[in-house]
Every structure is written in C-alpha cells, then in structure tokens.
Amino acid sequence: MGVSDGSKVTRVGLSPSNINASNSDPQMAYEILLAHVDQVLKSPCHSRESMPLFEETWALLQEARARFPATQSAAKVEPAQKTAD
Hints:
It is built from two helices and two strands, in the order E-E-H-H. 39% of the residues lie in helices and 7% in strands. The two termini are 25 Å apart. It has a domain at 10-67. The relative contact order is 0.16. It is elongated.
C-alpha cells in the first residue's frame, strides 16, 4: 500500500508475507503490527486469534522492530490515537 503525505509516497506491506519486505517502511510496519497486537490483547478471550497465529504476529513485530535504524528508538513510536466520531 502506498501512503502519501503530499510530497512523497511511503510504501508499506499489509499482509504477513510483505509487511517486513525490503520496500516496506519499517516504522509504519511496526506501528501497524503494534496496533494489531494491542487490539488482540484488549479483545475478549473468546474472540482472540489463536496462540500460534499470535506468536507469528509477535515474531513479525520483533522483525519490524529490528529493521529500525540504530538511531531510532521504539520508545519514540506511538500508535495513532483513535478519534471520537
């Protein structure tokens, strides 16, 4: 998927097979995976994804974090806040 900020287009994968691809923005991928993990952990037990699927997602999150340049810190990444409708 391409996301434009008006001056440039940033590409990020959205599926497990391409979210950590070399042409996928590492920070955006990390934020997407972090939001997904947050949603899973906050969902009711009966509607959560299976443990094997969650472990796969967690591994993708760790891989995305490892792709950050050494100068960036995960502490600086804050998931987008939901807005009230």
